[in-house]
Design a protein that fits this description.
- It is built from six helices and ten strands.
- It has 198 residues and is an alpha+beta fold.
- The chain has two domains: 31 residues; 160 residues, Alpha-Beta Complex (endopeptidase fold (from Nostoc punctiforme)).
- The strands form three sheets. The chain has a six-stranded antiparallel sheet. Strands 1-2 form a two-stranded antiparallel sheet.
- A hairpin with a 3-residue loop joins strand 8 and strand 9.
- Helix 3 runs antiparallel to helix 4.
- The protein starts with a helix and ends with a strand.
């Protein structure tokens, strides 16, 4: 290449490189937002620093052994298989795109539990899981329902599995797989709906 064309060529190549990087960044941001976070902004809003809910069964329940795998008091009709399956994942760290016990994101966690306990395959992305389930309101939630949460743009960006008494299990960005309360600040504010097996 002639020397006089080298500088304009390098300038053009540099410009195209930066333009394509910006396009890639926009594409990645859009894709990640559909699951749990956009670049540097978990849940597309904020990093939700959680204090996990620690069940405190009554002394009588502890004495009688009437406590399930998650430390929650048993009630007639509780699905022990569900509680045992969730217990196997407790403490697994959060990892965006993760699908195993080295790190799991919210939709993969819900998908694993649903396959194991109910034999159902759900969509991989949190927003799309809505397509697999019938909608239910907060007051209608029952054990095993999926709970959906939205980000500041109103898009479903997080999912978990409802247990009972306002408790749900999920893969939290700050603590991994834990139990949280629906009435806690972030979750109460961003609750969208429940979903039930069809």
């Amino acid at each position: 290449m002639p020397k006089r064309l080298l500088l304009p060529f390098l300038c053009l190549a540099t410009l195209l490189l930066f333009a394509s990087c910006e396009s890639v960044k926009r594409f990645i941001n859009q894709d990640l937002e559909e699951e749990d976070f956009t670049m540097g902004e978990l849940y597309a809003d904020e990093y939700v620093k959680e204090v996990p809910y620690v069940p405190t069964p009554s002394a009588e329940a502890r004495r009688s052994g009437n406590v399930n795998a998650l430390g929650i008091e048993r009630e007639p009709g509780d699905n022990e298989e569900l509680y045992n399956a969730i217990q196997d994942w407790m403490g697994t760290p959060y990892r965006y795109g993760g699908t195993d016990k080295n790190g799991v994101d919210c939709s993969a966690f819900v998908g694993h539990i649903y396959r194991q306990v109910y034999g159902l395959n759900l969509h991989r992305v949190a927003n799309d899981i809505q397509l697999d389930l019938d909608p239910v309101t907060k007051s209608q939630l029952s054990e095993g329902d999926v709970v959906f949460f939205t980000n500041s743009k109103g898009r479903v960006s997080h999912v978990g599995i409802y247990l009972k008494n306002g408790l749900f299990a999920h893969s939290s960005t700050s603590r991994g797989v834990i139990i949280s309360r629906l009435d806690e600040g972030y979750w109460s504010k961003h609750f969208h709906k429940g979903g039930r097996r069809q």
